């Protein structure tokens, strides 16, 4: 690339073959979706703008270098470089290892530009929003005199972090120091302000633009820059208006007006000359002859500093300034709450994350599509590591009909910025299915199964559900069977029992084949060690099956788990065993007979009640216990519903049963409603939580095990004070709620069905 070609690259953008978009700097005018993200040419030239942040279709892709980027002949890695390279190759998201590697390479290979290029290319492929490292990379190229390479680096930088004021400012400073052609430099400034000129923190870029035009002594361009600034609610707006007034009051208007404005003034002047009547014209002519003066020329009129003309000239800009200040007063609170407008791997605090959501809510409600896009792009620099903002952006663009922007944002999220986070791929699969791209949805699920998060239960469940919705029942079963086969090969797989439980439930709900579903559970017992959560799922499964319930089959399984047993290597904690016993007793209260209930209650008393410590039982007296909040709430229920289930006699009743359950023991709890906002994704991806989030109020309600409630030591087993369920204790009950008629048992899969 020769100097002339590099100048053209600076003026027009690196992607010189792309289609040029019609210029539009005034945000009040309508623009195309492409021009909003891909940039537009400014009024001074036909600039072709760079592509989006991290798009995979850039002409200069930000990828790990291959054969084209190799070390100089004979160069070797130091032991520290080898160690750091091994770390980042094993985990390319290790930011600290990357920065240490860059420092080590710069320290020992300062003159080896090939090694420096290699490490920067690899690092910036992973973290393209780090504008400071793009600047350092360009400085290395400038140090060895490769100006064409400097331009190439800066062009890749503004494609990687397009909505960064800082990187555009560095690029413009480089152009000022390198090129003498004002048109080249102005074109670069125009490209920059298209993207970030409306950014609240864009003052440094505008200041540099003003400084450059001051040096060029082009006052009409300078006045036009001030006019454009005053249209936008940016920082230091008062200073800009004050400087503009000073400029207008100290220079002739003929020097400040653009060619278009001068032409407009001339036309207006001509019209005013022909407007007076003939008699007025003769009188004026006679007066001029009597005074010995002639009519001033049009040029002199245009260059006059008539106070009225000056007032009108400033007044037009002042109106823009006042309007911008009014809008600034609405957003200043949001802007001041943004403490970190740039990208960093460190997490943002909750207040700042919530501020971005509130800011986006406000701008979306304002209805200016240009502002919406620009703010989302700003947000996704600081919040690039948070899938929720990418999901929100995609949904916002989709709802506005801008599918090109929605698809672009989803591609950037899944391929660059949050590519390792499962929720963005789950969202992508769902969106692609809704848009009819079934192959794309399957590809997203396969990526999750194979690379992103193998064995993620939520991905398995949602993939199988999609296939079932499409009528591919065999494929849905195959999804479960393939993952189960993989998990069988692992020792002590935590996922395997959860897979079996979900697979059996799914089989019954789809085929209504109770025997097939039970067969899956029987197979599971041959491959997994029963656990509290597996037995919970098994008990729940029996509740949704048609009678007769297999109580004689369940009872020994529950007993083996809740009894301490060295031979079977029971690893369940005492709290888990006690909770499972209570769950089983609750189940028997619904579906068991008197004998089975008595057996389970007696076993519970024998295993758990004698082990309460004396200190625990003496924490509160019987009177204190009876006056506790729970007892007060229980009394409220006792006044309206005296008949309490047997399980209320147990002070350790877990929180997984739905509130109001005691009042309608004949019906299973209703499913919880699915989330109204699909963009709200739970960032926690623990297997247990993901598995049981599907079961509604049953195991999903589990929190940390609660400490046993103190009970008077002298109280007999059957005389424990009645207490309300924990779910009902969250709010006072003013009056009994009318319960719906009993419904047949049904599963409550709130998320996956």
Automatic annotation (TrEMBL):
Residues 36-58, 258-305, 660-683 are annotated as: Disordered. Residues 662-683 have a biased composition (Low complexity). It is found in: Nucleus. Residues 261-277 have a biased composition (Polar residues). Keywords: mRNA processing, mRNA splicing, Nucleus, Repeat. SMART domains: HAT (SM00386). InterPro entries: HAT (IPR003107), HAT_PRP39_C (IPR059164), TPR-like_helical_dom_sf (IPR011990). Residues 279-288 have a biased composition (Basic and acidic residues). PANTHER family: PRE-MRNA PROCESSING PROTEIN PRP39-RELATED, SUPPRESSOR OF FORKED DOMAIN-CONTAINING PROTEIN. This is Suppressor of forked domain-containing protein.
């Amino acid at each position: 690339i020769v100097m002339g070609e590099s100048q053209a690259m600076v003026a027009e953008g690196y992607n010189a073959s792309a289609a040029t978009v019609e210029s539009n700097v005034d945000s009040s005018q309508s623009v195309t979706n492409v021009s909003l993200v891909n940039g537009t040419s400014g009024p001074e030239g036909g600039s072709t703008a760079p592509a989006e942040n991290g798009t995979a279709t850039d002409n200069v892709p930000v990828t790990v270098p291959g054969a084209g980027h190799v070390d100089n002949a004979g160069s070797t890695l130091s032991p520290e470089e080898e160690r750091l390279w091994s770390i980042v190759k094993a985990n390319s998201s290790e930011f600290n290892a990357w920065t240490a590697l860059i420092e080590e390479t710069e320290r020992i290979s300062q003159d080896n530009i090939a090694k420096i290029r290699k490490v920067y290319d690899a690092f910036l492929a992973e973290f393209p929003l780090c504008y400071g490292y793009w600047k350092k990379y360009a400085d290395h190229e400038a140090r060895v005199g490769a100006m064409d390479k400097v331009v190439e680096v800066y062009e890749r930088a503004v494609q990687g972090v397009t909505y960064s004021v800082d990187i555009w400012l560095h690029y413009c400073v480089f152009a000022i120091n390198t090129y003498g052609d004002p048109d080249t430099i102005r074109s670069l400034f125009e490209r920059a302000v298209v993207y970030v000129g409306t950014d609240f923190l864009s003052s440094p870029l505008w200041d540099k633009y003003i400084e450059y035009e001051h040096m060029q002594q082009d006052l009409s361009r300078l006045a036009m820059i001030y006019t454009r600034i005053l249209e936008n609610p940016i920082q230091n707006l008062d200073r800009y208006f004050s400087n503009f007034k000073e400029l207008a009051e100290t220079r002739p208007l003929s020097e400040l007006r653009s060619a278009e404005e001068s032409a407009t003034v001339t036309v207006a002047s001509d019209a005013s000359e022909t407007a007076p009547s003939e008699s007025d014209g003769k009188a004026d002519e006679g007066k001029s002859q009597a005074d010995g003066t002639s009519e001033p020329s049009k040029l002199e009129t245009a260059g006059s500093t008539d106070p009225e003309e000056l007032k009108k000239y400033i007044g037009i800009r002042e109106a823009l300034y006042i309007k911008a200040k009014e809008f600034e007063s609405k957003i200043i609170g949001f802007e001041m709450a943004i403490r970190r407008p740039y990208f960093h791997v460190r997490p943002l605090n909750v207040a700042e994350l919530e501020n971005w959501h509130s800011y986006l809510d406000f701008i979306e409600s304002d209805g200016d599509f240009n502002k919406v896009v620009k703010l989302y792009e700003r947000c996704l620099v600081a919040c690039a590591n948070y899938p929720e903002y990418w999901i929100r952006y995609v949904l916002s663009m989709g709802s506005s009909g801008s599918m090109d922007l929605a698809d672009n944002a989803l591609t950037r999220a899944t391929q660059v910025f949050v590519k390792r986070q499962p929720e963005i791929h789950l969202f992508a699969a769902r969106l692609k299915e809704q848009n009819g791209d079934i192959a794309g949805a399957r590809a997203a699920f396969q990526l999750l199964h194979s690379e992103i998060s193998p064995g993620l239960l939520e991905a398995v469940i949602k993939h199988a559900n999609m296939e079932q919705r499409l009528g591919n029942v065999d494929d849905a079963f195959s999804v479960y069977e393939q993952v189960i086969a993989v998990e069988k090969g692992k020792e002590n797989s935590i996922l395997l029992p959860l897979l079996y439980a979900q697979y059996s439930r799914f089989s019954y709900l789809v085929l209504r084949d109770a025997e097939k579903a039970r067969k899956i559970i029987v197979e599971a017992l041959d491959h997994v060690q029963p656990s509290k959560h597996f037995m919970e799922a098994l008990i729940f499964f029996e509740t949704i099956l048609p009678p007769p319930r297999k109580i004689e089959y369940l009872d020994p399984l529950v007993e083996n788990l809740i009894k301490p047993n060295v031979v079977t290597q029971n690893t369940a904690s005492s709290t888990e065993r006690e909770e499972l016993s209570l769950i089983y007793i609750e189940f028997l209260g619904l579906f068991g007979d008197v004998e089975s209930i008595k057996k389970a209650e007696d076993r519970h008393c024998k295993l758990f009640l004698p082990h309460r410590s004396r200190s625990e039982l003496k924490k509160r007296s019987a009177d204190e216990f009876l006056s506790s909040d729970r007892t007060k709430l229980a009394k409220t229920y006792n006044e309206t519903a005296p008949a309490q289930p047997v399980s209320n006699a147990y002070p350790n009743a877990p929180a997984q049963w739905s509130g109001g359950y005691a009042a309608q023991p004949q019906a299973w709890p209703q499913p919880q409603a699915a989330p109204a906002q699909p963009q709200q994704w739970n960032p926690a991806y623990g297997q247990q939580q993901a598995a049981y989030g599907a079961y509604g109020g049953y195991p999903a309600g589990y929190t940390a095990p609660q400490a046993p409630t103190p009970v008077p030591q002298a109280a007999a087993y059957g005389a424990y004070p009645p207490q309300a369920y924990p779910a009902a204790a969250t709010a006072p009950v003013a009056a009994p709620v009318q319960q719906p008629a009993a419904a047949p048992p049904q599963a409550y899969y709130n998320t996956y069905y």
